[in-house]
Amino acid sequence: WLGYHAALPGANGGLHKAAPIWSKRIEVQEQHHVMDTALTELSQGLSKLYGVQPEIIKAQTQDALHNERIPAIRLGTLDGSRFAAATLTDSERAAVHGEGFIIREDEAQRELVISSATLQGVLYAVFHLLRELTLKPERAQTGAASDDMKHGKHKRIDITEQPVNSLRMINQWDNVDGSIERGYAGRSIFYENGEFTRDIKRIRDYARLLASTGINAVAINNVNVHRKESLFLAERYLGEVAKFATAFRDYGIRLFLSANYASPIEVGGLQSADPLDEQVREWWSIQTAKVYAAIPDFGGYLIKADSENRPGPFTYNRDHAEGANMLAEALRPFGGLVIWRCFVYNCKQDWRDRSTDRARAAYDHFKPLDGRFADNVILQIKNGPMDFQVREAVSPLFGGMENTNQVIEFQITQEYTGQQRHLAYLVPQWKEVLDFDTYAKGEGSEIKRIADGSLYRRPYSGFAAVSNIGADACWTGHPLAQANLYGYGRLGWNPELSAEQIADEWVRLTFGHDEQVVERITGMLLCSLDIYESYTAPLGVGWMVNPDHHYGPNVDGYEYSKWGTYHFADCHGIGVDRTVKSGTGYTSQYHAENAARYESLETCPDELILFFHHVPYTHVLHSGKTVIQHIYDTHFEGVEQAEALAETWKELEGKVDPVIYSKVATLQAEQAEHAKEWRDMINTYFYRKSGIQDEHARTIY
Ligand code: GCW
């Protein structure tokens, strides 16, 4: 999406004829590594768009610049350059803060000024401008050369943007051996064979990709911190970590490390990691000071504790507030953050035990701790209470932690959504979660307002997500899965953007403006998640995948295992009773409006019926269909739709890059085939369990 290849040919054929008058000269006053990045991006982008390399003028004194008679782009921060401030009114100067920016053309459209309070803001403005110029080539039609201009139709550029979320983070689940946990796009770009990669260029390219969508933080190693990765905190590796930090810093991105809670033992050779032990606390303080000596703008620690066999404070009978606050104390002198994951549940459950409900776990663990976390601790909460299923309820924990900083965690990598072999554009799912009203403070208490910190007025908040990239040539395995990485960044910047707009942007930036191409690919993206949902686990019940690697159907794969992910299908019915009346009581973790809606079969939405209720196969949904007929119908339709996706793509042969064309064609054919496996396994399973015939007498085995 950074190809900038969609320049508009000029009226007389030549590309540069369409170039805006100001695009041939760039003026700056400030010197800084982020400003250098912004300059490189801007001149590279403009020359790709218009075929002319702009001249860059750097000057120490303001007087040497801003000769208004010379058309130019002028960029700078409010404090660091006079022209940046000069174009804004007092109230605008007060309103633009942090990473926000204003991009403005003067009346004569001879000058374009980019102003921000920060250098990061300037960089985001540059990416934004280049995106706008690529998406709306008519914007370039300025000056006397433009017919629109002559007829007074051209609107001058005047853009104000402010990121809605302050933390916009990516989590890498990369291991130092070069593997990636849940990675579907090849090996790690960060590590090879137990060492940090020497290919810093690729890290920089990644930083560039991320920054272009607005990402400002990255945790560079798996939250499951194994033996060798625990040593990232030690001298042996800190120098290497610092090199990555430099690459990301140039793009305004702060580096975090996932840390092993038992580091005092694993790295420090102590006997204990008890958060209340003085020696342990001192060890963290000293170690953290060493990290900051190597990386002065280090972001902090991302922690998975007492989760899936990882160590944590429970070992010492301490709770998670005690555990997190110890780290917070070590980080506080440096302005660092503890990002503490709430993915805590019993992963050694006995399937016979019907009283334990995994969905309840995060809320049961963390709600009682609300208000006890230090102010530089942020809880990272997965969007749902289970684990990134294609459909599950929204985590009730967001509605329950008024006095705690929190970020929402999404999964861009498609662990349960087709592993980048099936097409699944995830932005619509994320939008649905963000728009969910928790009623925490009455109507209008949407998750997006909790994630952005405004509802509870929290100092730290935002988005985190597990990346989907690897060493694969197109970064993401399935080329169209790039839309998810792009979409995550854009949504973190502004959760009000629609899934349609984000898809349209990504397709135009990536493939250009051919209307057939744009229409077909956005169409494919926008219906892809519904299609995937329809041929996989039905009605919100989730799972039904092969254990361990999680690809492909296996209805009972987890039914008698320790992971707490059951569907309870028998010959009468299916679903998990999570009601207060007769089930696990999970519904009570929501505020009254949602609790009542989910508790009652009458009001529970169809798509989540099996998440909340155990019902007979003959139960009639709001759609008018029985549960069993719904299962049959959606699975037959899902396969037809998956086949249609493959057919749609074929229409684009010759219209998109041939390498990308054939890669996607192969993947879509595989998806259509594999969807049949899903259909037949699920339909056959439920036909055999229920003994109920398909109304349409289609083939079930
Ligand atoms: O989704 C599950 C994955 C694990 C992962 C865990 C987590 C990194 O199957 O591979 O571990 O969640 O989020 O911690």
TrEMBL record:
<feature type="active site" description="Proton acceptor">
    <location>
        <position position="415"/>
    </location>
</feature>
<protein>
    <recommendedName>
        <fullName>Xylan alpha-1,2-glucuronidase</fullName>
        <ecNumber>3.2.1.131</ecNumber>
    </recommendedName>
</protein>
<feature type="domain" description="Alpha glucuronidase N-terminal">
    <location>
        <begin position="1"/>
        <end position="129"/>
    </location>
</feature>
<dbReference type="GO" id="GO:0005576">
    <property type="term" value="C:extracellular region"/>
</dbReference>
<dbReference type="Pfam" id="PF07477">
    <property type="entry name" value="Glyco_hydro_67C"/>
</dbReference>
<dbReference type="InterPro" id="IPR029018">
    <property type="entry name" value="Hex-like_dom2"/>
</dbReference>
<keyword id="KW-0624">Polysaccharide degradation</keyword>
<keyword id="KW-0858">Xylan degradation</keyword>
<comment type="subunit">
    <text>Homodimer.</text>
</comment>
<feature type="domain" description="Glycosyl hydrolase family 67 C-terminal">
    <location>
        <begin position="476"/>
        <end position="698"/>
    </location>
</feature>
<keyword id="KW-0326">Glycosidase</keyword>
<comment type="similarity">
    <text>Belongs to the glycosyl hydrolase 67 family.</text>
</comment>
<keyword id="KW-0378">Hydrolase</keyword>
<dbReference type="GO" id="GO:0033939">
    <property type="term" value="F:xylan alpha-1,2-glucuronosidase activity"/>
</dbReference>
<dbReference type="InterPro" id="IPR011395">
    <property type="entry name" value="Glyco_hydro_67_aGlcAse"/>
</dbReference>
<dbReference type="InterPro" id="IPR011099">
    <property type="entry name" value="Glyco_hydro_67_C"/>
</dbReference>
<keyword id="KW-0119">Carbohydrate metabolism</keyword>
<dbReference type="InterPro" id="IPR017853">
    <property type="entry name" value="GH"/>
</dbReference>
<feature type="active site" description="Proton acceptor">
    <location>
        <position position="387"/>
    </location>
</feature>
<dbReference type="GO" id="GO:2000886">
    <property type="term" value="P:glucuronoxylan catabolic process"/>
</dbReference>
<dbReference type="Pfam" id="PF03648">
    <property type="entry name" value="Glyco_hydro_67N"/>
</dbReference>
<dbReference type="Pfam" id="PF07488">
    <property type="entry name" value="Glyco_hydro_67M"/>
</dbReference>
<dbReference type="GO" id="GO:0046559">
    <property type="term" value="F:alpha-glucuronidase activity"/>
</dbReference>
<dbReference type="InterPro" id="IPR005154">
    <property type="entry name" value="Glyco_hydro_67_aGlcAse_N"/>
</dbReference>
<feature type="active site" description="Proton donor">
    <location>
        <position position="308"/>
    </location>
</feature>
<feature type="domain" description="Glycosyl hydrolase family 67 catalytic">
    <location>
        <begin position="153"/>
        <end position="475"/>
    </location>
</feature>
<dbReference type="InterPro" id="IPR011100">
    <property type="entry name" value="Glyco_hydro_67_cat"/>
</dbReference>
<dbReference type="InterPro" id="IPR037054">
    <property type="entry name" value="A-glucoronidase_C_sf"/>
</dbReference>
